[in-house]
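Hey,

Quick one before I head out. I ran the complex with fe (iii) ion overnight. Inputs first:
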Amino acid sequence: MKCKNSLVPLTRAALIGAALVTAAAAQAQAQAGEVNLYSSRQPFLMKPLLEAFTDETGIKVNMVYMKKGMLERLKSEGRNSPADLILASDIGNLHNHDKAGLLQPIESAILSANIPAQYRHPSGNWFGLTARARIIYASKTRVKPGEVTTYEDLADPKMKGRVCIRSGKHVYNISLLASIVVAKGTEGAAAWAKGLKANLARKPQGNDRAQVKAVFQGECDVAVGNTYYMGKMATNEKDPVQKKWAQSVNIIFPNQQDRGTHVNISGAAVTTAAKNKANAVQLIEFLSGDAAQKIYAEANFEYPVKAGVALHPMVASWGTFKADKAYLSRIANQRIVASKLVDQVSFNN
Ligand code: FE
């Protein structure tokens, strides 16, 4: 900006003015303060979101990325933890932090309005920010249309030796099984887990993408995985062979004629140790808003939790589907039961 009555670009008055402006900006930033975030969501995904937040609010975000070990770290730090809030994937991880007493309830009209009740804790201990469906990846050549339409089909004897899935103990699969406990009771879920195990083409191993790879290679005909991996494989320039894995399968949203497909979340929660609680709440509110929901959807092929936010075109191309309406808080409460069932049927052996 130029001083309109100055003849030279920078007069002494303009210099003092500029210094005052800088000081004012610094003071605004200091007043807005900062917030400390522990995130198991990756920096590539969070960086644009956090920058947009700082631009809008002046609040500086100090993010520590933790691929693993967040729960242990927060437990050991206790009340002295610098973390004001956490970001984590899967209801299982959020629930485990909650059960360890590490999270505090938050009341926010914005969060209540933006996030459907089934994707947040009833008392506000955690909030879903993105959604992903746990779907069936079916071989284009070896699975007939209509042959597999439900999770129950995966446990049906017709699928003997045809199913691939990662470890039954993985957080994604425990949540899926917990959703089946909610839908069919403990006995029903036990029978499903037993039937599924009997149909496995190989011992559970690898991550979600490795299951689709196994379908591509002909080891199995169907696999279980999260939706966003389809987008990540189909657009993978670093490892282009993954495009072939994606091309070899169709996506099936299970149980469209009854309870709907299991949908999980990534989400956020404020810690009990939070020293910048108001800023932490403001950040979660920002992440639930239109602008941030759009960035999330574009960057990671996930579903926005907020209604009316546009999907990534590829995600939109998979079509609309009916999601299981069971509250994730209710599903989370069955995770211990589900974990015991995995042991009981020796799922991984
Ligand atoms: Fe994942």
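Residues 171-199 form the longest helix (29 residues).

Talk tomorrow,
K.
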